[in-house]
Write a structure and sequence with these properties.
single chain, alpha+beta, NADH Oxidase, Nonspecific Lipid-transfer Protein, Chain A, 3 domains, five-stranded mixed sheet, four-stranded antiparallel sheet, 13 strands
Length: 465
């Protein structure tokens, strides 16, 4: 076998390097000129661009928590390119969701195409790069129900100086407002200058998103009910789709299926399968007046702005999907009596103790919590053979405090517990997934309580569905 150095491909590559006098893709190569890189990204479809240094000592904690994944995706990663692509405001504001979703899908495709084009152009210049995650839809489905994406676009955009998070939990660009979609590219080079978070929040705190949200997910005091938003807006995504499949499987006949799912719902699910999953609302985006390119009509005549953009969404007759007994169900009945409430299963079924603990702050219902004030100590254990197999011999301990309509989750046991729960981890997960009953688990001593069982019932009421 000939020496590799004599292979035609190797000889041709070496001749190119000798001609330029350097190896273009040398680790730790010269930083990329920031102005040149911004223009390249704009030429390829981005409307604004910023950069984040991965060795920044003040790196956003969310991004820092994803560093291992970033470096696994691109060994030697040194920086992130964050960019935005603008959507059509008129389309997103249209009460017809078909029009709004068409723009979402189109701009998602544009942003993904821009990210791919940036990667390809940089590679041609000897810079290693990879896209950080698809723009609109997380695809690492094997991680469900955990984090299904590699890079979180929102904190990257904020760190790069492309906007700040509004009360509705969307990034608001200082010029384009929240009518944007985000993309991220990972590169193995530094850049000559990096962005910093802008020194003000474009959010006007006008509360129009609060008024328009059909589920009450956004509160005037800044509280965000993730569960309410997820269950309705993402009905035809992920967990909601899984619930629909189980409804089909459990129906047994066409008649029983039609009793549970209306014809329009079936057609809507088909449309999502055929043309991409459709958002049910995103009204918070539609009514937001922030951003220097957007704010004019709102400042000129706020009443007219509200009549034109907020009132049609509030008045719209539609089905709102909720978890049974949730804050969203109570909110719709109180505020939007003309909208139809439909109880569904959001499909959020924890697969692990870690997933259970991470999910608690997201699905907590402060209205259902009411005046509850309690401290819970949870201890999760594994059978010896399982512990040995999964290297999980140490129990997982957590302290959960519910008080004044808030929840905190902390690892370890802290303070004096009002209720202590010790549970076999597998049994607890089966209980949450409704695959075993609590009385049976208590009888078999797979779940043990120290304190009033009523506190466990009160705990459960805070997490309907």
């Amino acid at each position: 076998m000939a020496e590799m150095a004599e292979h035609p491909t190797v000889r041709e590559w070496q001749a190119r390097q000798d001609a330029v006098g350097t190896v273009a893709h040398e680790a730790g190569g010269e930083p990329l000129d920031a102005d040149w890189l911004k223009q390249l990204c704009r030429d390829l479809g981005a409307d604004d661009v910023g950069f984040v240094a991965l060795d920044d000592p003040d790196l956003d904690p969310v991004i820092a928590g994803e560093l291992s994944e970033i470096k696994a995706a691109l060994p030697g990663a040194k920086a992130l390119i964050s960019f935005v692509c603008r959507m059509g405001r008129g389309n997103i504001r249209n009460p017809a969701r078909s029009i709004a979703n068409l723009d979402f899908h189109h701009t998602n495709g544009q942003a993904d195409a821009t990210a791919i084009a940036i990667v390809q152009q940089l590679e041609r210049r000897g810079v290693a790069a990879t896209t950080g995650a698809p723009t609109g839809f997380p695809m690492e489905a094997e991680r469900w129900p955990g984090k299904m994406w590699l890079v979180s676009h929102k904190p990257v955009a904020v760190a790069a100086g492309l906007g700040r998070m509004g009360i509705h939990r969307n990034v608001i660009h200082p010029v384009f407002g929240n009518f944007i979609l985000l993309g991220t590219v990972i590169i193995d080079r530094a850049v000559t200058s990096f962005g910093r978070p802008i020194d003000y929040n474009p959010c006007l705190e006008c509360k129009l998103c609060v008024a328009a949200c059909p589920t009450g997910a956004i509160s005037a005091d800044g509280h965000f009910n993730f569960s309410a938003c997820y269950t309705h807006n993402y009905r035809e995504f992920m967990g909601g789709f899984g619930d629909w499949v189980e409804t089909v499987a459990a129906s047994g006949s066409a008649r029983n299926y039609r009793a549970k799912v209306t014809d329009p719902e079936t057609i809507s699910m088909w449309q999502s399968l055929a043309y991409g999953p459709n958002y049910k609302a995103a009204y918070c985006l539609a009514v937001c007046p922030a951003g220097s390119d957007v704010i004019g009509p709102y400042l000129t005549d706020r009443a007219a702005f509200t009549r034109q953009h907020v009132k049609p969404l509030r008045d719209k007759v539609e089905t709102i999907y909720v978890d049974a007994g949730s804050d969203a169900e109570a909110y719709v009945a109180r505020v939007f009596r003309h909208k139809k409430v439909k109880r569904v299963n959001s499909g959020r079924r924890p697969a692990s103790i870690e997933g259970f603990l991470r999910a608690l702050p997201l699905i907590f219902q402060r209205g259902r919590a009411g005046e509850l004030t309690a401290r819970y100590h949870f201890t999760f254990t594994w059978p010896a053979k399982t512990a040995a197999k999964e290297a999980a011999a140490e129990p997982v301990k957590a302290t959960i405090v519910i008080a004044e309509g808030r929840i905190s989750v902390e690892r370890g046991h802290h303070g004096m517990a009002d209720l202590a729960v010790t549970a076999d981890a597998a049994t607890w997960i089966r209980f949450l997934r409704k695959e075993t009953s609590l009385p049976l688990a208590l009888l078999r001593r797979r779940i043990k309580l120290k304190g009033s069982p009523r506190l466990l019932q009160a705990f459960g009421r805070c997490f309907p569905g």
